[in-house]
Amino acid sequence: MGLISEADKKRLSGLFERQFKDDVRLVFFTQENECPICSEISGLLDEVNGLSDKIKVEVYDFVKDSDKAKEYGIERIPAIAVVGKRDYGIRIYGLPYGYEFKPFTELLLEVSRGETDLSAENKRKLATIKKDAHIQVFVLLTCPYCPMVTRSAFKFAIESDHVRVDMTDIQIFPNLGQKYHVEGTPKTVINEKTDFSGAISEDLFVQQLTIIQSTPTYYG
């Protein structure tokens, strides 16, 4: 039995057929015998692949295909790069399921279109960001507040050439949870300097991005 219900498959297939524009590539990095959850992720991606002929799944071995991993900036597995007409710098470290499945499917639509539903004002503010911003959103798949933050971060990466986003499941990467002092989810870290916990609105999130030159927060 798959992870996606038949009702959701039917709904998503129809939605993708109506709204997809360009192809979306799901570039999945795994490693045989070194990633227990990778088989589950592979199964989910196969199901998603069957929802639209515009969804393409590529699978690479993290070690054997190290050049490809380097090309996409992948330093750990499991990892999924979500790529549309161009690479928006969106990476998912873990299984995009549970509360994160809906943001994942919405991300596919927006990557296919190359645009989001961000307000004109927030798009204007994002356009003022001239230095690169690396957003890390740490989540748990059982966290009902995490999707609000991951959705915003994904949108920012699509709308701004200077923003890249990692969504990381700390249950799979507890070492990163320790490094960044994640005591609750969601937790967001920007450029290793600015961090905040909890769900915030897109408006407040954009404000955080505009102050990425603020006094650094040091970890360790």
> Residue-averaged pLDDT, rounded?
94
Distance between the termini: 43 Å
Low-confidence stretches: none
- What Rg do the Cα atoms give? 17 Å
Strand order, main sheet: write it out.
2-1-3-4-6-5-7-8
Overall 3D form: globular
Q: What fraction strand?
A: 15-25%
Largest beta-sheet details? 8 strands, mixed
Going by CATH, the architecture of the largest domain would be 3-Layer(aba) Sandwich
CATH topology of the largest domain: Glutaredoxin
CATH top-level class of the largest domain: Alpha Beta
Name the structural class: alpha/beta
Q: What count of domains describes the coordinates?
A: 2
Written account of the structure:
It is globular, with a radius of gyration of 17 Å. The chain has helices at 6-19, 38-49, 66-71, 101-113, 120-127, 146-159, 174-179, 202-209; strands at residues 24-30, 55-61, 79-83, 87-93, 133-139, 163-169, 187-190, 194-197. With 220 residues, the chain is α/β, with parallel strands linked by helices. An eight-stranded mixed sheet has the order 2-1-3-4-6-5-7-8.
Summarize the topology.
Elements: H1 6-19, E1 24-30, H2 38-49, E2 55-61, H3 66-71, E3 79-83, E4 87-93, H4 101-113, H5 120-127, E5 133-139, H6 146-159, E6 163-169, H7 174-179, E7 187-190, E8 194-197, H8 202-209
Helix pairs in contact: 4-6
